[in-house]
Amino acid sequence: MAAVKDVERPDYRYVGGESELLAAMLDRLRSTFLWKCEGLSDDQLRRRSAAPSTLSLLDLMRHLTEAERYWFQHCVAGRDLEPLHAMRAQGYVDENDSTPTEQVVQHYRTACEESRRIAAGQSLDHVVQSAVYGCPVSVRFIAVHLVEEYARHCGHADLLRESIDGAVGE
């Protein structure tokens, strides 16, 4: 049974203010990532890529969940959070994390919704501290950084999905 289904990808937004366009692009990338996972079984979502990488679509989802939570809930909203998923020393999600797939998907969707809520109430010029970069960063930087993060990982998801069932797409 598919853990991700009924994904609706918003159309591109071509006109609007900077905040609106960044939010729309980030939401399109979030849904594109879910779209790459749509219809796959638990085993398919956990399938590892070609050696030496051990990456799976579920690993990417865990990583993106933690990225959403770190940047918006921790940095912007100031919450003290423990990771939802097991992490390796290098900061990457541990591929041996045994969290059930349905729970991983729910964590991801919840983190994205919370990020949307937090970002909606912030000025792009608002500055917060980032332990990752060791310096202050603006909410604008965070939004652009997450667009970059999603663009890269959607590319990984393209390759992983194609290796699983041959499905390709934008």
At the fourth level of CATH, the homologous superfamily is dinb family like domain
User: What is the element string, with H for helices and E for strands?
Assistant: HHHHEEH
CATH class: Mainly Alpha
Assign the CATH topology. Four Helix Bundle (Hemerythrin (Met), subunit A)
Mean pLDDT: 92
Radius of gyration: 16 Å
Q: Which parts are unreliable, with pLDDT below 50 for 5 consecutive residues or more?
A: none
Termini separation (Å)? Answer: 25 Å
- Quick one: biggest sheet? 2 strands, antiparallel
CATH architecture: Up-down Bundle
What does this structure look like?
This protein has 170 residues and is mostly helical. The chain has a single domain (18-165), classed as dinb family like domain (Four Helix Bundle (Hemerythrin (Met), subunit A)), CATH 1.20.120.450. 54% of the residues lie in helices and 5% in strands. The chain contains 5 helices and 2 strands; from the N terminus they run ααααββα. The chain has helices spanning 18-37, 42-46, 57-76, 101-120, 139-165; strands spanning 127-130, 135-138. A two-stranded antiparallel ribbon has the order 1-2. Strand 1 (127-130) and strand 2 form a beta hairpin. Helix 1 runs parallel beside helix 5, helix 3 runs parallel beside helix 4 (101-120) and helix 3 (57-76) runs antiparallel to helix 5. The chain is globular, with a radius of gyration of 16 Å.
